[in-house]
Amino acid sequence: MSLLTIEQLKIGYEGQPVVSDLNFRVDMGDYLCIVGENGSGKSTLMRTLLHLIPPLGGKITYGDGLRANEIGYLPQQTLVQKDFPASVREIVLSGCQGRLGLRPFYNAEERKLAEENMKRMNIYDLADRSYRMLSGGQQQRVLLARALCATRKLLLLDEPVSGLDPKVTSDMYELITSLNKEGITIIMISHDITAAIRYASHILHIGSQVFFGTRNMYLQSDAGKMFRAEEKGASSHAE
Amino acid sequence: MLSKLLLYFQFPFVRYALIVGVLIALCSSLLGVTLVLKRFSFIGDGLSHVAFGAIAIATVLRVSNDMLLVLPLTVISAVLLLRTGQNSRIRGDAAIAMISVGALALGYLLMNIFPVSSNLSGDVCSTLFGSTSILTLTAREVILCAILSLVVVAVFILCYNRIFAVTFDENFALSAGTPADRYNLLIAVITAVIIVLAMNLVGSLLISALVIFPALSAMRIFHSFRQVTICSAILSVICALGGMITAILADTPVGSTIVAADVLVFFICWAIGSLRKTA
């Protein structure tokens, strides 16, 4: 059974559909990139998958024992967070909030999990530093460590490299790829199609035409061909 | 000076005032950090005006214990304000401005049409700026105040981790299964309770200062949520105590002296913060 099966899904806000008739599935270990123009409904789709907004129609089925609150979510940064007085440790630990149940406080096991994930993201030496003092790339690692506290299986990343400089961007992509190789399934929203083709195993293109398939199928498809033509045009233009 | 203080401490009403003042300062500073960070500071301000209107109604109706009327009315307004804040049709800030100014005007109007005492402007002034009411508390009011404060502190400590999570990132909290709406509601209700409590101390116009200043001061110096919360609680208690004692010794109005102390501490913290940054 697939980790996530989407059938005939119709998404949108307050009854206004943005995209309809979406069909795709995500298996254990996949690396799915959701691409499309601005306003094509990428973020709406992600919010629907997280149950933050209800679907307007169709079905989302979780399989392989995955529960809806066991998804590690990396949202886009909000304005409030830029100046938020919180230590790295506090933020990463808050990734364990789904495990709290009725308990008011985190236990030793959860604290250890937070520490492990800080080490995994290479930010353990920053644990007691303030989040607002960190660079953009470090902040993303903190939020990624928090997402890892929430899940063992599936990460949903919303534009994880927006606002990062090129060097930090490629580090971030490498980090995500290494997590994927460790067995964590990745679903990532991106408008960077070049990176999507380089790193992803599957691509979902939403917009005027919808495409879902493996990376190679995408390169052969109309949407993919169009993109490659544009890319060629752009590179010849640059020359 | 010390002898004057000791003389004053022999009166039970002065001791009551100090106890209640410290408890209120503690409660109001706890949620301050969250309210400032969530950009909810103005909700406190709006609610305090609602509380003023409610007190006017209680005075006109000659309700013996006005807390019984003011508390529920303010809590209901808090819930309504939060609802309208999420509704995009009337923007949150506009709704708050409407409710707060409306309540202020209606309250004053009611007190004018149905005057209960000959000194109307004195009554209004003490409700707005809390000039003497802190020194006229009865033992029963002190106990009610103490119980409500302890409940607020207990709820805050028990929900501390969730309040942090919802304040820092509502979307992530929702995705992890934390019912963020419910915690927002809880924050609004606690804010309402604190405001009704604090009206006794500083009056309805100055309450926001009690909520916001300690949090902002602590945020200049400290960098983790826990440190900021603890520091703002300590600063708030020190300012309240210092302000009240100064008010007794120098014979100044209690509420505005406390707020003046809060403002002073804010500038000190701000200076320390900027000195550290340049160092």
Through-space gap between termini of chain B? 40 Å
The whole-angstrom Rg of chain A is 18 Å
Largest interface: A-B, 36 and 31 residues
With strands numbered from the N-terminus, the spatial order across the biggest sheet of chain A is: 5-6-7-3-8-9
Give the count of structural domains of chain B.
Answer: 1
CATH class of the domain at 80-168 in chain A: Alpha Beta
Multimeric status of the protein: heterodimer
Shape of chain B: globular
Strand content of chain A: 15-25%
Briefly note the structural class of the backbone of chain B.
mainly alpha
Count of discrete alpha- or pi-helical segments spanning 4 or more residues of chain B? 13
CATH homologous superfamily of the domain at 80-168 in chain A, by name?
Answer: P-loop containing nucleotide triphosphate hydrolases
Alpha carbon gap, first and last residue of chain A: 48 Å
Kindly list the characteristics that best describe this protein.
heterodimer, A: 239 residues, alpha/beta, Rossmann fold, six-stranded mixed β-sheet, globular, B: 279 residues, mainly alpha, ABC transporter involved in vitamin B12 uptake, BtuC, 13 helices, 83% helix
Report on this structure.
The complex is a heterodimer of chains A (239) and B (279). With 239 residues, chain A is of the alpha/beta class. Among the domains of chain A are: 1-29 and 58-68, no CATH class; 80-168, P-loop containing nucleotide triphosphate hydrolases (Rossmann fold, 3-Layer(aba) Sandwich). Helices cover 38% and strands 23% of the residues of chain A. Chain A has nine helices and nine strands. Chain A has helices spanning 42-49, 79-82, 88-93, 108-120, 136-150, 166-181, 193-199, 215-220, 222-238; strands spanning 4-13, 16-26, 31-35, 57-62, 71-74, 154-158, 185-189, 202-205, 211-214. In chain A, the strands form two sheets. In chain A, strands 5-6-7-3-8-9 form a six-stranded mixed beta sheet, with helices on both faces. A three-stranded antiparallel beta sheet of chain A has the order 2-1-4, covered by helices on one side. In chain A, strand 1 (4-13) and strand 2 form a beta hairpin. The radius of gyration of chain A is 18 Å and the shape is globular. Chain A starts with a strand and ends with a helix. Chain B is mostly helical. Chain B has one domain: ABC transporter involved in vitamin B12 uptake, BtuC (Orthogonal Bundle), CATH 1.10.3470.10. Chain B is built from 13 helices and no strands. Chain B has helices spanning 2-9, 12-37, 41-61, 67-86, 92-113, 120-129, 139-158, 160-168, 170-175, 180-202, 207-221, 225-250, 254-278. Chain B starts with a helix and ends with a helix. Chains A and B meet through helix 3 and helix 5 of A and helix 8, helix 9 and helix 12 of B.
